[in-house]
Specification:
Length: about 270
């Protein structure tokens, strides 16, 4: 899908375009969080992305934010529809090249494929993204590096590449010296755990403890979902047309999806 044009347009037309795009993004979030109509939410995201690609936009930064918002909601919708296999290819349709994917989208994809037990799907894309010079200074670079290390390389048992990432150019740009040492310790610890489990399969985690942890996380997520739906319904009842209020709600939704829905354990950082 082609990127947004930088051509100038009249102020009124620009305002109308922004309002329409924000309305579609708002609608997709409502379908996702309030109505849990994931198919309709995804289709709305598709229409929004098509509209962005075919409409001239003066503010390229705002256009990029809208595009990322539609993609994040679209990814979550596909995951809820159990169509996660096509997420990466769908994202690449929007951005065309792996290194052009925004950091927050890359983070979300890594977490998604890690959660479904297919971290290898993201190995090539994340490696290309991290070694692209233009991505070294973007916000979120360190988080992508951390997620790639902990959710792709370590689970796959790629110790040499993990160590190379930490001590190499990517690690130097992403982590402090102390963080690099902690990361090396984590890699060594995971390697020891893997060897111990191979030698002693009975040392696996207690199923009851694991079930209790999953149950607790599920309760937290359900409470957060209820709070978000309550907040959104109140926005609808007040018929607030405020961009700021709706933008705040959407930001909360995106953070919830990225940090809790896909990976509840993300709150406790390793680095």
């Amino acid at each position: 899908m082609s990127s947004c044009s930088n051509s100038l347009c009249a102020g009124s037309e620009l305002s109308c375009s922004v309002t329409h795009t924000l309305s579609m993004l708002d609608s997709a979030a409502e379908l996702m969080m309030v109505h849990t109509d994931f198919q309709a939410a995804f289709e709305t995201c598709e229409r929004g992305l098509h509209s962005l690609a075919s409409t001239e936009q003066e503010d390229s930064n705002r256009c990029a934010e809208f595009k990322a918002g539609f993609c994040i909601l679209g990814i979550q919708a596909l995951a809820e529809l159990n169509q996660w296999q096509g997420v990466l290819s769908w994202v690449l349709q929007q951005y065309e090249q792996q290194e052009r994917i925004p950091a927050k989208i890359m983070q979300m994809c890594i977490l998604l494929y890690s959660k479904v037990g297919e971290p290898a799907v993201m190995q090539d894309a994340a490696r290309v993204w991290l070694h692209c010079p233009s991505n070294g200074g973007v916000t979120g670079f360190a988080t992508v590096a951390e997620l790639y290390l902990l959710h792709v390389l370590v689970p796959l048992g790629h110790k040499d590449e993990a160590v190379g990432l930490i001590v190499g150019e990517v690690g130097s740009g992403a982590f402090t010296e102390d963080q690099r040492q902690i990361a090396l310790d984590v890699v060594e610890e995971k390697e020891r755990e893997k060897q111990e489990q191979t030698l002693n399969p009975r040392s696996s985690p207690n199923p009851e403890t694991t079930a209790q942890t999953v149950s607790t996380k599920g309760v937290v997520i359900r409470k957060l979902e209820a709070m978000l739906r309550f907040f959104y319904r109140n926005l609808l009842l007040t018929r607030s047309g405020s961009f700021s209020l709706r933008s705040v709600f959407l930001a909360v939704v995106l953070l919830y999806m990225l940090f809790l829905r896909l990976d509840p354990g993300r709150i406790k950082r390793y680095l």
